[in-house]
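Work Package 3 committed the consortium to producing structural models of liganded targets before the mid-term review. Because experimental data for this complex are still outstanding, the team generated a predictive model from sequence and the ligand definition alone, so that downstream docking and mutagenesis planning could proceed in parallel. The input record is reproduced below exactly as it was submitted to the modelling pipeline, together with the SMILES string for pyridoxal-5'-phosphate.
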Amino acid sequence: MGKLIYLDNGATAWPKPDNVHQAMSDFYRNFGVNPGRSGYDLAIEAEQTVSKCRKQLTEFFNGDDPERLVFAYNATDALNQVIQGVLCHQGGHAITTNLEHNSVIRPLWHLLQRSDIDVTFLPFDKDGFIDPDDIRRAIRPDTKLVITNHGSNVIGTCQPIAEFGKICKERDVFFAVDASQTAGVIPIDMKAMNIDAVCFTGHKSLMGPTGIGGICVAEDAVIMGTRWGGTGVKSALRFHLEEYPYRLEAGTLNTMGIAGLLAGQEFIESRGGPEAIHKYEMELMQKLWEGIKDVDRVNLYCAESLENHIPVLSMNVEGFEATNTGTLLDVEYDIATRTGLHCAPLVHEQMGTDKIKGTVRFSMGPFNTEEHIDTAIKAVKEIVQMSKGWTRSLNY
Ligand SMILES: Cc1ncc(COP(=O)(O)O)c(C=O)c1O
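The resulting structure, written out as tokens with the ligand in place, is given here.
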């Protein structure tokens, strides 16, 4: 890893655990054939890896049935399938929030342009949380979908999804959760939380590779298929199969990604499970927060307290655009962060940070250390000093 300090785990977890590299390589070398299409031994072995991963992830989310754990390319793909699969065939009203990533905003926006649907975007409060009562009030007789972020990829706040789920259950509205930032660090119990669909991505806290994600679909949740093709079974039929997992899967699966995702689960277990990883990462987050929160001219966003947060912290140095701070962190200190709008423009519009080109985001992972955070704190303090001389020329 050299001397790079990687604090951009919100974009993707990096580095990946050794066992993930190993499992992917072993799988592809030994069983890299197409599963579910043939009866020879290798194909059966490959299918077993896929089935095992479906089973483990279903248990992980406390879903109902491993067959209803469907694989997608990533969270974006999973969210598109849920949004279109719930709304396309029936129209109606959807409720979402200003905290969403573009992988929720854009599918909804495109449906808004093309079809007869309506969308309500709920604002968050000053601390970055959605009031469950706002969801309750926003539900109308024609509301078909509530879709919310679990952990914000910009401000790190973690929403009370169990409360959202309870309201949706009472009002018989489909409840979908974007768990991109939380799956692997915050336990999600679909049954206890009344969630109809959890959309996840493999490459963040689930510690797997890119190119794999999916949806865990509850037993009685209805999502129509929105793409069709080969499944390897019942090939004579003109129609795509309605049964799971085929209903939402078409074409050859990313089996190597699935093998990596399965190994990611093993890594999480080896570190004591999601709660233990979260605890470790939040200790680093706390250290960073304490180190910079009182520094003059450092602005933190929705971080008065770190309760109900994931290890994602957005900040700016007053007078500096986010990119200036990010570039200095990179060039002068070898610290990788993410700057800008983080694909979540409504968060910034609500906070006013869209006018200063977003924020600098620090996001911690299981391979970060206290030394990394010490360096980041020192860097931020020095950048504040540097910025004093530069602010006038930057003109804001
Ligand atoms: C909250 C949230 N939702 C969705 C996504 C999309 O994930 P992917 O790029 O893996 O599809 C991200 C990625 O950053 C995210 O942070």
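Reviewers should note the following from the model. The pocket of pyridoxal-5'-phosphate is lined by residues 74-76, 101, 103, 149, 153, 178, 180-181, 201, 213 (CB under 6 Å). These observations will guide the Year 2 experiments.
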